[in-house]
Amino acid sequence: MRLLWAFNHDEATRSFARAAQTDPGCAMCFWGIALTLGPNYNMPAMADVRARVGWQALRRAQALAASAAPVDQALIAALARRFDADKGLDPSNSGPLLLAYANAMRGAAQRFPDDLDVQVMFAESLMNLNPWKLWNADGTAPPATQEIVATLHAVLARAPDHPGANHYYIHAVEASSDPGQALAAAGRVADAMPSAGHLVHMPSHIMHRVGRYEESAQANRLAAKADTAYYARTAAIDYYPMYSAHNYQFLAASAAMEGRGAEMQSALRDARKIFTDDMVAGMPGADWAIGFLYDGLIRFGRWDAMLAEPAPDQRLGGMVIAYHAGRAQALAALGRIPEARAELALAEAALGAMPAGALAGMNAGSPLYQIAVWRAKARIARAGGDKAGAVAALASAVAIEDGLSYNEPADEFFPTRHLLGAALLDARKPAEAEAVYREDLKRNPANGWALLGLALALEAQAKAPAAAAVRQQFTKAWANADTKIGASAF
Asked: Phi first, then psi: what are they for 129, rounded to 5°?
């Protein structure tokens, strides 16, 4: 169960299977196999082979249930609602099955209020109904989210160190308007299972959101070490490397906010080693994440490094767009405008060829990659002296970005407002730039890029005392940086 709480589902399956070999009469061993093979918060649908094996294990659990404890019988009966022997987990049927399971788990939670594991599994069953979309865009919580939060609150009040409750509570509130309410959980979760890389990583989901970027980065450095040690002990790693790649992506995002360009680039290349082309080609939409490398190079003004990147596998449509858009920006920054326009045309052609319904992270692919195209257009406009055109293009990108679904780190690797603010200052519109930076700091607290931009905007308006105070904040935010900046964007 502890492996389940740590989202190492395949290792948990193997553990339950080994227990079933040791005790073939253990109903809950087979229940555990079926449970861990099933949908979870990061994988809401089951592959057919997992559904078949899970169904067989559940049938065995049902056959053994008569001798099980009442709470175990309730869990076995509830899990049966998540399977359909005829349809498996046909995507058209998975929603009703997951809802039926959640309703059954609510009944189990009500029958066994003192079994905290049952309470946590009930909360998880509700989370899986709407993964990564637990909060409305206006920051309000739907009734199901309110029930999730209340259930986990109650568990943590009785068992503050429960690894599953702390883990799920972080996910339950990270997208809220007050992610800091999970700071206590973030402080506990890594210590609950220090060799479980994903739990060691989990504090970063809150630390990054509240502007504690170095603590977020450190959580992911430690998670990477824990995972390396884990891989040295097992030959069967299955789906879990996705979580290791996530650690590196998160490390990159937090390091970038601190101005640590070298660490950001190293982490993104480590993630790329995990995401092989063949792996990503079989996971539609996953190539957005390895395209972060292009965004990172552009963010730190590494124009030559961007141009030295090899062309991506043409099967990876999203990465192709990001590659050409990145090259367009680098070429424009170097004053090679005709070449930049040619790369922009390639990016737009690839975007136009993206299939309807294509995904990128938690979002539709087309709007997400349109941001990259708008950024390239802005860079070309600015290089050509068209300051108004650059501002307009970046404003269009921000409008799209604000409509993206929540993910952590964000599906857009760095905020477009950093570019827009710099363009507004270049266009001698410091008051508008100030508003842009203040909004960014609401979304990304204490980030040095926006703090420097805000200081520049205030100085341009002769607001010296306010500018000096913000400069001090910038100095603190940039204390770990390896890159000097004179604006909020290169």
From this structure: -70, -30
113 pLDDT more than 90: yes
| CATH 1.25.40 for domain 2-159 | yes
Token pair recorded at residue 36: 């861990």
Residues facing residue 359 across a β-bridge: 364
Contact 223, 191 (CB under 8 A): no
Note every long-range contact of 376-381, with CB atoms under 8 Å and residues 24 or more positions apart, other chains counting: 376/325, 376/328, 376/329, 376/332, 376/340, 376/343, 376/344, 376/347, 377/344, 378/419, 378/423, 379/328, 379/329, 379/332, 379/333, 379/340, 380/328, 380/332, 380/337, 380/340, 380/341, 380/344
User: Residue 88 pLDDT more than 60?
Assistant: no
119 near 109, Cβ under 8 Å? yes
Amino acid, res. 31: W
**Alpha carbon distance 460, 278 (integer Å):** 51
The CATH T-level fold of domain 417-490 is: 1.25.40
CA distance 202 to 9: 16
If you search the block for the tokens 């080994």, which residue do you land on?
A: 18
Q: Please list, residue by residue across 155-192, b when 16 or more beta carbons sit within 10 angstroms of its beta carbon and e when fewer do.
A: bbeebeebbbbbbbbbbbbbbbeebbbbbebbebbbeb
Q: What is the pTM of this model?
A: 0.95
Helices (DSSP H) in 300-336: which residue ranges?
Answer: 303-308, 317-333
Closest CA to 359 of 287, 416, 291: 287
Amino acid at 70: P
pLDDT digits (tens, 9 = 90+) for 369-391: 999 999 999 999 999 999 999 99
* 466-474, Cβ contacts within 8 angstroms, sequence gap of 24 or more: 473/446, 474/448
Contacts of 324 by beta carbon, 8 Å cutoff, 6+ apart = 343, 344, 346, 347, 350
> Which tokens hold the place of 214?
């170095």
As beta bridge partners, residue 360 has: 363
Closest to 440 (Cα-Cα) out of 463, 461, 464, 457: 457
Residue 91 binned pLDDT confidence (cut-offs 50, 70, 90): low
What are the tens digits of pLDDT across the range 423-452? 999 999 999 999 999 999 999 999 999 999
Architecture of domain 283-414: Alpha Horseshoe (1.25)
- How far is 278 from 298, CA to CA, in rounded Å? 26
- Residue-wise DSSP of 163-208: HHHHHHHHHHHTTSS-GGGGHHHHHHHHHHSTT-HHHHHTTHHHHT
Query: How far is the CA of 313 from the CAs of 277, 310, 359, 390, 419, in angstroms?
Result: 7, 9, 17, 31, 29
Rg (CA), the chain: 24
- Contacts of residue 370, Cβ cutoff 8 Å, sequence gap at least 6: 351, 397, 400
